[in-house]
Amino acid sequence: MAEFTSAGLRAPVLRPRTTAGIVLSTLFAANVVAVTALFAASGPSSNVLVSLGRLAGLYGALLMAFQLLLVARLPWVDRRIGMDRLTSWHRLLGFGLLWTLTGHAVFIVSGYAAVENTGPIDQLGTLITTMEDVLRAVVALVLILVAGALSARYARRRLAYETWHFTHLYTYLAVVLAFGHQVAVGESFVDSAAARAYWWTLWGAALAAVLAGRMVLPVRRNLKHRFRVSAVVPESPDVVSVYVTGEKLDELPVRAGQFFLWRFLSRDRWWQANPFSLSAAPDGRSLRLTVKAVGQGSAGLRGLRPGTRVFAEGPYGAFTTAHQTRDNALLIAGGVGITPIRALLEDVRGHVVLLYRVRSEDDAVLLDELVAIARTRGAVLRLLTGPSDQDGPHGPVLGARSLAALVPDVADRDVFVCGPPGMTKAAVRGLKELGLPPAQVHAERFSLAG
């Protein structure tokens, strides 16, 4: 095949992901300094445990506000960092939140118990019955502990997204209760006009971000574009493509490699939101998603009728050519992970090599399209067949030695990887062993949480 290369593609001075990371890190660090300064200005308590409890509570409130910001789905942040990384950071902050709020409760109760010369349980009962809004704080802590337990990997994997999401909504109640407690009894809050202004601004900004990113923007886009199913095309016995059209799709800020949360408004599906990536580069006229039947939700797409209205949230994700830093690219896909890779094949710049890992050629979704696109743009398509645990002549099929043999100039390419978690992890590990820097390796997990 003839080779196609782009001329003079240069990495930006500062990558989009780096820019967004610096902005968020600086914002968080500045708020840590502000919270610490406000705590210091209010003066320490006469009891060390009470002082530690107050400080832990303030840091917990800050972590809670930033957790809201990370999952607000603001486009500027999401398309630079990606929902998977933002969700991971949200989860890490969640562990910090559990520790700080638990520490807040333990230190405060222990400190007051020491001052009153009573037991912790008795002191907790006294605080609940005598101090305003302490009961709210206890309820908020319980709700956060429950949400944290349900977000643990073991529990999350066994819950349907809708169940997890419904129970997680109670954390917003916890936010309201915690803020009410802070307003009523927080010493650094009550005694300082500057502290009150700061906390109101912080919480107001966090809640406004959630409202804008998760409610206002999706509703506005759906009212503007009026998405609906235009066609349902079986690709194989267990794979189906759904075409979605609408109004003014050329004005939708979507790129190849991104995904939407699709809610098909039929009688039996309106309550389900599923993350499916685009399987074709957007052309301003329609959007296409291609799904393999791996569960009841995805299997039911085959029965969708043309004309069904669609509520689509997105586009989301940083798995796009906006992060490409080299002239050429390597695309690695496994199974149905080919769908965003197939869209990227149309959009990625320079000469492209596509490695498609499947059990057999019959499992290669959209293979005819891939062959046609590869031929048109002079890309190299290699179908790697065989069981997932089968090695090739150079060891693991997507290990370092095999990748180097299949793509000798891999170090000079950006690499986009999408597939099952085990395959993705193996490929990323192999690329790391070959010395590729993280800036050249792009892998994104298309999921809602957990």
UniProtKB/TrEMBL annotation:
Major place of residence: membrane
Record domain FAD-binding FR-type: where: 222-322
Pfam family, one: NAD_binding_1
A cellular component term, taken from the record's GO annotations: membrane
Topology in membrane: Multi-pass membrane protein
Xref: InterPro entries: FAD-bd_FR_type, Fe3_Rdtase_TM_dom, FNR_nucleotide-bd, MRET, OxRdtase_FAD/NAD-bd, Riboflavin_synthase-like_b-brl
CDD domains per record: FNR_like_3
Cross-referenced PROSITE patterns: FAD_FR
Co-factor(s): FAD
Localization of this protein: Membrane
Keyword Iron-sulfur: yes
Ranges annotated as spanning the membrane: 21-42, 48-71, 92-114, 134-155, 167-185, 197-217
One annotated GO molecular function: 2 iron, 2 sulfur cluster binding
Keywords: 2Fe-2S, FAD, Flavoprotein, Iron, Iron-sulfur, Membrane, Metal-binding, Oxidoreductase, Transmembrane, Transmembrane helix
Protein name: Oxidoreductase
